[in-house]
């Protein structure tokens, strides 16, 4: 009796096809704790670091040697800060898309779909909302691929929760696992999760609105020392010559720069309110 291979959409997947799907899905997975900057983002961050070094070297030391000494530290700080900013922006984007996915997934479950089929239906709607490259679209594609390798829904959601680093996703994964075992209302849980995330986003937006003016003031205050230095040097050339040409003057300018940097860090931390 001749044995035929069954595969594709009409039969059981072969071992080779399962391995191929697993490898393709692994290529789509995103590790949210890490962020790999693009070439353009790297160039932009390095440019910011070099510009900041030039500004500080001009105002506080008026020395090309000081500029070159600042470059390693300045560029490193700029790269770390930019990577952190981009990573936080991606987390915020994922949180917004996850909220929408919960609403869509709840609607699919209410229509009578099983969880596995609801993921596939929701993925199509999410691709229309955010495109094939959308974060949540890629996550749903990855989850569907994992389910085809005989992993459970609970395992797939738990993996997503661990990688995402978002508290809302972790809470949803835990509640979903309990509800699945006890036969709870899955669609109701998802709607409640979406409402909780929406409430948090509204609070964040209110805080952002309340602190917007303070953040603007902080930026203006941060520019004032440089504007004063340029104004004095332009109106009275040589006024700061003792500060740049003597050892005591360099020590004082270094202290001023350290005090300025500390004040900037403290002001940003005060205005960085998290919910």
Secondary structure layout plus pairing:
Elements: H1 15-28, H2 39-61, H3 64-110, H4 115-130, H5 135-147, H6 153-164, H7 167-182, H8 186-235, H9 241-245, H10 247-271
Helix pairs in contact: 1-5, 2-3, 3-4, 3-8, 4-5, 5-6, 6-7, 7-8, 8-10
Structure explained in plain terms:
By secondary structure, this protein is mostly helical. The chain has one domain. 80% of the residues lie in helices and 0% in strands. The chain contains ten helices and no strands. The longest helix has 50 residues. It is elongated. The N terminus is likely disordered.
Number of DSSP helices? 10
Main beta-sheet annotation:
none
Mean pLDDT: 83
Low-confidence stretches: 1-15, 17-27
Instruction: Estimate the global geometry from the Cα principal axes.
Output: elongated
Could you state the order of secondary-structure elements as H and E?
HHHHHHHHHH
Strand coverage percent: under 5%
Helix content: over 70%
Number of strands: 0
Structural class: mainly alpha
What's the Cα radius of gyration?
Answer: 27 Å
The number of domains: 1
> Please, what is the oligomeric state?
single chain
């Amino acid at each position: 009796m001749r044995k035929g291979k069954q595969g594709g959409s009409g039969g059981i997947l072969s071992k080779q096809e399962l391995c191929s799907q697993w490898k393709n899905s692994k290529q789509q997975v995103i590790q949210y704790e890490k962020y790999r900057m693009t070439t353009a983002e790297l160039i932009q961050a390095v440019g910011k670091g070099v510009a900041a070094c030039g500004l500080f070297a001009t105002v506080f030391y008026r020395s090309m040697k000081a500029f070159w000494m600042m470059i390693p530290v300045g560029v490193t700080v700029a790269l770390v800060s930019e990577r952190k900013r981009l990573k936080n922006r991606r987390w915020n984007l994922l949180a917004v898309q996850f909220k929408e996915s919960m609403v869509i997934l709840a609607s699919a479950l209410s229509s009578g779909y099983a969880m596995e089929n609801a993921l596939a239906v929701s993925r199509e709607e999410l691709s229309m909302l955010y495109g094939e490259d959308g974060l949540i679209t890629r996550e749903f594609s990855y989850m569907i691929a994992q389910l085809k390798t005989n992993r459970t829904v609970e395992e797939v959601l738990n993996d997503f929760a661990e990688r995402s680093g978002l508290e809302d996703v972790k809470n949803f994964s835990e509640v979903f696992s309990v509800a699945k075992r006890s036969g709870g209302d899955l669609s109701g849980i998802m709607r409640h999760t979406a409402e909780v995330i929406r409430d948090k986003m509204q609070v964040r937006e209110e805080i952002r609105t309340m602190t917007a003016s303070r953040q603007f003031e902080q930026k203006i205050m941060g520019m004032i020392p440089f504007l004063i230095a340029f104004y004095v040097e332009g109106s009275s050339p040589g006024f700061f010559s003792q500060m740049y040409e003597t050892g005591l003057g360099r020590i004082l300018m270094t202290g001023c720069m350290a005090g300025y940097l500390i004040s900037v860090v403290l002001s940003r931390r005060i205005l960085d309110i998290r919910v």
